[in-house]
Amino acid sequence: MNNSYKHSLSTNSKITQISVNRCFDGEQHYYSHESSSTKTPMTFSIYMPDEALAGRRCPAILYLSGLTCNADNVTHKAHFQQKCSELGIIFIAPDTSPRSSEGSDSNEVPNDERYFVGQGASYYVDATQSPWSKHFNMQSYIVDELYDLLRSEFPIHSIGVTGHSMGGHGALLLGFKFPGKFVSVSALSPVCAASESAWGQAAYTEYFGDDKSRWAQADAAQMIKKSGQQYASILVDQGAADNFLAEGQLQTAKLQRACDKANQPLTLRYQAGHDHSYYFIQTVINDHIEHHWRMAQMS
What is the mean pLDDT of residues 42-65? Predict the structure, then answer.
């Protein structure tokens, strides 16, 4: 393991380095830490170009993954490292939810047999209903705890947010709910109206109960309409042959209508022949990295 990069971590920091691998002109790192928001251990990957390894503050992209995924999926499959190396961008991928693990309080983390509810399916919201509310506080984890940790421990001067599927929903939702945190927003195949999709309705019934006002606050399209224009432009790519689009889970047209109502400039591209997979993500990820890089230069 290459330990060439040394943190300026205090002796009291609980962040633990799991691995380091040289990749293009930079390093791919993994870390773990105990989360006060989820009351479980959490992990994240972070790619740092050589500029960041040398201590220079760089723009960063926070990538939120989709249903059933963890930090490994995008880190291993999306092939973002070369473009981040070329542009000097940090790329961070947290896990999608708290999880059960041996020998800790996280054994109590609730789960569900449905893949679109429970572990791996947080929707990046703070649950209010038992048993989910004890651990499923991913909104607080992302925008408060992890955000502050990243800004304090790594050479970051700005953060943009992106994500895929459920993570695309998270990027749009959190980007417009907390615009002061992020300089840019993009999404790949996002769930655009979670409160009106079968996936989101199943999850939100568990996390929020029947309180539809909370459902509305956890719906990306509704949050955009409520918040109005927050960014010079946002970029969204959607595979035109995506079976989840055809099934009505993504409801991309509602994103367009929300942005129109909010006067939020949107570049929405339907990519012919592409599905929901990481092959699609590989195809468009460089455009998203460049989008965030351009927005960071304006910040």
Answer: 98
